[in-house]
Amino acid sequence: MTRPFEVGVVVRDLAVMERFYRDVIGCRAVRRSRVPESVGGPAGLGGELVVAWLQVPSGGCVKLLLPSSPVAPAPEALGPAGRMALSYLTFHFDDMGPVVAALTAAGARPLSDPVVVPARGRRVSFWSDPEGNVVELVDACGQEPGTGRSN
Q1: Are 112 and 98 in contact (CB under 8 A)?
Q2: DSSP letter at 78?
Q3: pTM value?
C-alpha cells in the first residue's frame, strides 16, 4: 500500500453528512470533485456523482459520495439484515468524552445503553449518523495500567 486508508460512504444529503463528519467527528474538509458519468458509469458507481473528501486527523480519508440519481445496491452487496455491506466506521480518540457530548448535542442517536461501554481495556461507543450509518468511537481511557493492548 502506498497511501493511508480511505473509505467511501454513499449519502443522500451531502451538506448534512459533511457537516456531521466535519463538525462533530472532527474531520477536515479537503476538497470536492465531480466524477462525470463517463467515469462513474463504467466504474460501477451508477453514473455522475459529487465527492467530498474529508481528512481524518490521524490519517486516512472519508469520502462522501452523492450520486446524481439513487443507486440501488447489487443483491450481493447487501449484508446482514438487508443493509449495505458496510457495517460501521471506527474513529479512535485520546478521550471520546467531548465527541460523545457533541454527538448528543447534535441529536445523533446512541445505539447502546450505557452510551459508553468498557471493552477489554478501552471504551467503545456506537452511534447512528444522520443517515443511519453506524459510527464507532474508541479510546483507551478504560485501559488498565500496563496492559498495552490496542484493538
Answers
A1: no
A2: B
A3: 0.75
Instruction: Give kind and range of the element (H or E) at residue 40.
Output: helix 37-40
C-alpha cell, 124: 467503545
- β-strand partners of 91: 137
C-alpha distances in Å from residue 113, one per residue of 92, 100, 116, 124: 20, 13, 8, 12
What angle is formed at CA 50 by the lines to CA 47 and CA 52, rounded to 5 degrees?
Answer: 145
Q: Is 31 exposed, middle or buried (0-12, 13-18, 19+ CB in 10 A)?
A: exposed
User: Can you tell me the mean pLDDT for 16-24?
Assistant: 95
pLDDT at 27: 96
Residue spans of beta strands (DSSP E) within 99-148: 109-110, 117-119, 122-128, 134-139
pLDDT per position as a tens digit, 51-90: 999 999 989 999 999 988 765 554 444 443 444 456 688 8
State residue 39 phi and psi, 5-degree precision.
Answer: -105, -50
Q: Residue 43's pLDDT is what?
A: 66
Q: Are strands 6-10 and 61-67 parallel, antiparallel or unpaired?
A: parallel
Phi and psi torsions of 89, nearest 5°: -100, 135
